[in-house]
Write a sequence for this structure.
């Protein structure tokens, strides 16, 4: 039971946090579309994207179960590692002040002015700009969520906790969006991305290792050790990067 | 068509942001997966090398990016 919780909880948390970040980003654009171009086409585009994503999952899910588990672990672990290290790298650079922090208010403002610059639709109910914009953002962020759920869930047979985590994130963001009707600018996005990067890098390393025959000490429990290791490395990288950045700027003056 | 191209570009962008980190990860995974066992290292040593190498890659990459005065987007 302990092993299954050790295994399932990181999957659930990783899927929840990663999906939360993606849904917050999608909500910002959908809110901009709804505010400027009307709610009906904004929600239609969103619904269309959600149906497309559901069809993708239904098509890909059964295919994935036919692939031998070792191959799934190797492939998913490798992609998850690339994905996780990419998130972690960016979160480290943002925390160190090398890259600007993501600003939902600024995104909302730029999307709003872009959407206003397009002409009015002949029939506002079928506004192609609104439908296309909300469809695209929900598809883009949704594909990331689908990948994360499959990646953190499929290799360990934990699709249910991973999907539950993503669903919980969707419910949280939709409820907050309905209640606030404005971008969720106070969500500590970089801290979330930092945590997700650590979790996904650890998962990716674990599954890639399993796929190439690594004998992890403590089996599944070593996942917790990998999470602690990547957290330590990432925090160290933030300190070192901050110092390096200051030195580079001082030398350039 | 443009939307499809955007989706494809974003899909690749999911995994590759900085080319050198992605290339280093691919190379190190291949070394630890196939070359290290050929050299006679055990499965535990293989895991330790994988973990240490990935941390070194991440540290080197972030430090290199931090040293650039112009930073990045």
């Amino acid at each position: 039971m302990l092993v299954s919780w050790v295994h399932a909880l990181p999957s659930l948390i990783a899927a929840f946090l990663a999906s939360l970040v993606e849904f917050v980003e999608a909500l910002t654009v959908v809110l901009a579309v709804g505010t400027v171009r009307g709610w009906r086409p904004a929600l239609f585009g969103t619904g269309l994207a959600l149906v497309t994503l559901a069809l993708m999952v239904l098509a890909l899910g059964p295919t994935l179960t036919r692939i031998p588990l070792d191959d799934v672990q190797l492939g998913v672990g490798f992609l998850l590692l690339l994905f996780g290290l990419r998130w972690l790298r960016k979160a480290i650079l943002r925390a160190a002040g090398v890259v600007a922090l993501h600003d939902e208010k600024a995104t909302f403002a730029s999307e709003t002015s872009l959407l206003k610059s397009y002409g009015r639709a002949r029939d506002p109910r079928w506004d192609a700009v609104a439908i296309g914009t909300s469809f695209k953002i929900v598809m883009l962020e949704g594909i990331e969520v689908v990948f994360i759920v499959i990646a953190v869930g499929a290799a360990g047979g934990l699709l249910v906790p991973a999907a539950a985590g993503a669903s919980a994130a969707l419910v949280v963001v939709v409820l907050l969006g309905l209640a606030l009707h404005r971008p969720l600018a106070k969500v500590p996005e970089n801290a979330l991305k930092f945590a997700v990067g650590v979790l996904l890098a650890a998962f990716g390393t674990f599954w890639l290792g399993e796929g190439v025959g690594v004998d992890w000490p403590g089996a599944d429990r070593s996942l917790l050790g990998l999470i602690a290791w990547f957290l330590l490395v990432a925090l160290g990288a933030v300190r070192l990067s901050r110092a390096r950045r200051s030195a580079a700027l001082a030398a350039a003056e | 068509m443009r939307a499809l191209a955007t989706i494809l570009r974003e899909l690749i962008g999911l995994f590759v942001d900085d080319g050198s980190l992605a290339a280093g990860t691919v190379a190190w995974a291949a070394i630890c997966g196939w070359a290290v066992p050929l050299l006679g290292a055990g499965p535990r040593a293989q895991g330790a090398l994988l973990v240490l190498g990935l941390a070194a890659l991440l540290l080197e990459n972030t430090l290199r990016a931090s040293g650039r005065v112009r930073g990045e987007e």
User: Anything to note?
Assistant: Residues 2-37 of chain A form the longest helix (36 residues). Chain A touches chain B through 49 residues (CB under 8 Å). The mean pLDDT of chain A is 87. Chain A has eight helices and no strands.
